[in-house]
Amino acid sequence: MWQLYQFPLCPFSRKVRLLMSEKGIAYELWRENPWERREGFTQMNHAARTPTMHDAEKGITLCDSRAICEYLEETVDRLPMISGTAATRAEIRRLVALFDENFFADVTGPLIHERMMKRLVYRQSPDSRMLREAMRLAHEHLYYIDYLVDNRPWLAGPTMSLADLAAAAQISVADYLGGLDWSGHEQARAWYSVFKSRPSFRPLLAERMEVIQPPSHYADVNA
C-alpha cells in the first residue's frame, strides 16, 4: 500500500489526496513536517518536500505532486482526470500549473509563511502588509475562476479534471488560513461548495493544524 507523506496545510499533498480518493486508491497517511528535514524523509526525498509517496512492496518512491498525479493517471484507469482531446488535456495541464505555481506564489505560499510558519517555526508575528497583498491577489484569482465557471461546466472543460482538484486544494488551504474574501465571487463560491460536498473532500475539511484554527465557515458546505 502507498504511504503518503504530507502535512495538513500542504496544498500539493491535498491535491494528491483528492486524486487518490476520487480514483479509489488506498493509502496510509503519514504526517511529515518538511521544515524539520527528518533524516528518514530526506533519504526518500532529498528536497524534503511534501508530498512524497512510497510503496515498500513495489520499491517505488514518488516525489513532486505533478509527477505523482501523472503517474497515477498513467497507472490507474478509473476516473481519468487528464482526458479529452489533446487541446483539452493541454488546457487541464495549463490550469494545474496556474494554480500550483501562480496561485501558490501569490496567495497560499505567503499565507502559509505568515500565518503558519512564523507562528509555529519562527515564533514571529505575521506581516500585515504581506497578508493584505495575498488577499488582494486572491481576489484576482477568484475573478478568473468566476470567468471560467461562467463559460464552462468545470474549470478546464465539460468534466471535472485535475485542474479542479489543483484549484480546490490551493483554495482550501487559503480558506483555512482566513485569506479569502468570497464577497462578489458567487460563481467561484458555488463551484467550491460542490467540492466541499464531495466524499473525497470531507477528510480535508475535518483536519486541523495544531494551534491554528480555521474560520467558522471553513467546513460548512453551504458557506
Descriptive notes:
The chain has 223 residues and is of the alpha+beta class. The chain folds into two domains: 2-75, Glutaredoxin (3-Layer(aba) Sandwich), CATH 3.40.30.10; 86-206, Glutathione S-transferase Yfyf (Class Pi), Chain A, domain 2, CATH 1.20.1050. The chain is built from eight helices and four strands. It has helices at 11-23, 39-44, 65-75, 86-120, 128-151, 162-176, 186-196, 202-206, and strands at residues 2-6, 27-31, 52-55, 60-63. A four-stranded mixed β-sheet has the order 2-1-3-4, covered by helices on one side. A hairpin with a 4-residue loop joins strand 3 (52-55) and strand 4 (60-63). Helix 1 packs across helix 6, helix 4 runs antiparallel to helix 5 and helix 4 packs parallel to helix 6 (162-176). The model has no long low-confidence stretch (mean pLDDT 96).
Shape: globular
Write down the Rg.
Answer: 17 Å
- Neighbour order of strands in the largest sheet: 2-1-3-4
Which CATH class of the largest domain?
Mainly Alpha
How many strand elements? 4
Quickly count the helices.
Answer: 8
- Distance between the first and last residues' Cα: 36 Å
In the CATH hierarchy, the third-tier topology of the largest domain is known as: Glutathione S-transferase Yfyf (Class Pi), Chain A, domain 2
> Given the helix and strand composition, which structural class is it?
alpha+beta
**What is the residue-mean pLDDT, rounded to a whole number?**
96
Percent range of helical residues: 40-55%
- The proportion of residues in beta strands is 5-15%
Count of structural domains: 2
SSE string, helix = H, strand = E? Answer: EHEHEEHHHHHH
- The CATH architecture designation of the largest domain is Up-down Bundle
Low-pLDDT segments, ≥5 res: none
The main pleated sheet reads as: 4 strands, mixed
